[in-house]
Amino acid sequence: MSETNHLTRRSWMKLAGITAAGSFVRRAAAASLFDGKTLDGWIQIENSATTLSVPGIWVGGRSITPTTSSSGGITDPAAFTGKLTNGTDAVSVFLRGRLQDSVKADPAALVKDLNEMISGPSIYDRARFRNVVLRPETEQLLQQNPSGQQLARLNKLLLEDAYPGELAKSVSTGWVVKDGAMASTGSGRGVIYTAKDYGRYRVMFTMRHVSGNPDHQACVLVFCSRPPAGEKPLDALGGIQFQVPNGGHWDYRPGMNNNGGPEFTSVTKTHFDVHEWSRVEIVADAAKGTARLAVAQPPGSKAVEVLDFQDPAAGKVGPIAWQMHNAGLFDEYRDVTIESDPKDDDLITVK
């Protein structure tokens, strides 16, 4: 082999190495948030795990719609109220003494008072629950002498065990891995959010809305408030909601809880098929309070900008979340990546 050929090949290998390294750097800039196998790096909050609801009334500023898929709610309001009013069992007698006024009032007042009781202190007493069959989950949590949100979970489990015919069994998780995607199970209102906080980023993912009964768009939350350890989280983490893929929205900040105003700008009115896969890009900057949404359907096609948000007061370093708006919703997310501190705020999928 000639020196010329040798140098040429060596030079070629060097250049190839630089190219490979360059490609590696570009890929590494967008880190994976989901490996397609586990939910490691994500935290779940299932509202029904620590609160009670009844179909058709307003709880915490949100209407609870009847659905056969809901968990942890009052399934027979008349029978439940009847036991609280006239039941001779020790648990009903105890609750009646604590809730006498609200039992005689409307269901919303009853649920409000019960949820305050669920938040603590513990309602457990050995004699009071002597004739109640406790689930293994309840027994296990009882032995841990919990506090904070875990205490609220224990109280909720105790009520469900005491009234198995009137209260639906709740679950503490609402998301699983299914066929390589993060999939909601339809169990109830709640969120799954990143274990890490982000301030300025580009998050990209592929999603589809499988079905809903009652139906609602798939929802992504930005500028969220991470729940302090042991404390009750804000509904929807107090974040800014983008409905994907067609750009609906909601403002969950404390004192807001509405669909927003001029801070939301609908850039393109789209009619994407929510049941088909879409590739979504969101570029957010907490320091500026800005977030931009672009969607491509099918994935790989050129995206269009769908929705913009701008409110400096809303910007917050915090987790990113998928929201299950209500029970009965089945959404799927996959190929989730994040680029922290991108060099600019451009939407790269629209180019």
Describe the structure.
By secondary structure, the chain is of the alpha+beta class. It is built from six helices and 17 strands. The longest helix has 27 residues, at 3-29. Strands 1, 5, 6, 8, 12, 13, 14, 15 and 17 form a nine-stranded antiparallel β-sheet that branches. Mean pLDDT is 88; it is low at 1-28 and 57-69. Strand 5 (175-178) and strand 6 (181-184) form a beta hairpin. It has helices at 3-29, 77-86, 90-103, 107-118, 136-143, 148-162, and strands spanning 30-32, 42-46, 58-59, 62-63, 175-178, 181-184, 190-194, 200-212, 218-222, 240-244, 249-251, 264-266, 278-285, 290-296, 304-310, 321-324, 329-340.
Number of distinct beta strands: 17
Helix proportion: 10-25%
Contiguous helical run count:
6
Rounded average pLDDT: 88
Gap from first CA to last CA: 46 Å
pLDDT < 50 runs, ≥5 residues: 1-28, 57-69
Task: Please trace the helix and strand order, writing H or E for each element.
Answer: HEEEEHHHHHEEEEEEEEEEEEE
Q: How would you characterize the largest beta sheet?
A: 9 strands, antiparallel
Structural class comes to alpha+beta
How big is the Rg?
Answer: 25 Å
Shape: elongated
